Structures are given as C-alpha cells and as structure tokens.
Amino acid sequence: MTKRAAALLKKMDNVLENEDIRDNERQILEASKKELVKSGNDLREAAQLESILRPYALKQSLSKPMGLFYNDLGSQYGNRRGTFIFPMF
To answer: What is the pTM of this model?
Structure first.
C-alpha cells in the first residue's frame, strides 16, 4: 500500500470514529475503506467515493465531518480547479 493510500485510510478511520456522521455516510465510507484495503488503489477508491458522495454534497446534506472529508478528498485527489481526476480503469 502506498503512503498516499495509507493516509487516505487513516482519514477514513478518523471520520468513522466521529459520532456525528450519519448512518448512510458510515455505510458508504466503510464499504469504500474495505475496498481500499483490498485493492490498495487509492485513486480508484477516491474517484468512486467522490462519485457516490457528490449528490449529497450538491444537496448540501453531508454531515459536517463528512463534508470536511469530502472537501479534503477533492483537495488531495482533484485537479487545481477542484474537479476530480478519474483514473483509467
């Protein structure tokens, strides 16, 4: 696992430890974490996670901890315009 993937995993754990996230957000993040551990491909998992969370973000219905995580995800894996760079699968 790369350092970047390990850092993403740690950020996911930090959000999952927060009691303020909603049940559906927890389920989404746990599934993504499981895939990240299995594959080690942080680019793909970040892109898929962003894709799943985008509708919630657009509706501004993410909890505060998940919203901060989503913004951080965009900062780390997005391009300079804030849009995500999707890897070739």
So the answer is: 0.83
